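Long-time lurker. I teach an intro course on protein structure, and each term I like to show students one example going from raw sequence to a predicted 3D structure in token notation. This year I'd like something fresh instead of my usual example. Would anyone be willing to generate the tokens for the chain below so I can use it in lecture? Attribution to the forum is fine with me.
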Amino acid sequence: MTGARLRLVAWLVALAGFLTACVPVAGLQEGAATPAPAASAGSSVEAGSPEDASGGTALAAPAAPVESATPIPAPVPPQAPVAAPAPAPVPQPFALNLYREGDFVPQYTFDWCVAASIQMAHNLIDDTGGGTWADSTQQGQLWEMARARSSDSFNGANPFGWAQVLTESGMGPYRVVSIPDYGEAVRTAARAITDTGRPVGLVMWSGRHAWVMSGFESIGDPRQFGDFAVTGVHVLDPLYPYGSGQWGPSPVPNSLLTPEELATQFVVREPRRWSSSLPAGYLLVLPVAA
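-- Reply from a regular --
Happy to contribute to a lecture. Here you go:
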């Protein structure tokens, strides 16, 4: 009996210890959960997120990917305004005249027009004012020089001799040209005066007389406008004041003739024995740029 009681007491003690060990565990599972520590400001844990099975705090779900923004093109610097093209230049009145008082020289005989024209050309070119050629003796000498250089000229002086004496006397070079169109002949003469600063010889009366063209007026500068229009021509006729019954009066020295007035005495020259190498046209004793 005593032994049986002792065994019963021992068994009760063991049972009590077993029950004591199980109570706290059940209490922890059924009791109020210990509050989780508050998340710090930098924590990725969201408020109220469930705990995972291991007792740790579940991580927040990854944020949705942020779509890349459409690239903004770099600003284009403003372009400078394109300037409007400059208007084409408009031809303006233009004038050039080499004549000065005292440049005119008359021919001392009815044959010496070429020699007198050579003297006037020298005076127009020489701008010193101290070397005027006007002497009658000199004029006769120049006439002989021109005759000697004029072949097949019926014992007179022709434009070839005229051009050669001008060149040999230091006023050249000069050459003889024949231009079939009247307007182009006048423009050629004006252009030559502009380019060289020297006068032009005009073969008048179909080859029978010599004048000097000392200048001109035009619409447009020949150096800028190829189609400039000559409106006036300054001329020197060594036969002044006599003129011709057939061709008309001699203009006053340094007269400004219209192209129409000049055309009454400046006419086409047909080829002849001395000029067979030239086509028919308006003959010029033309200064050439050296």
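Some talking points for your students: The radius of gyration is 59 Å. The chain has a mean pLDDT of 82.
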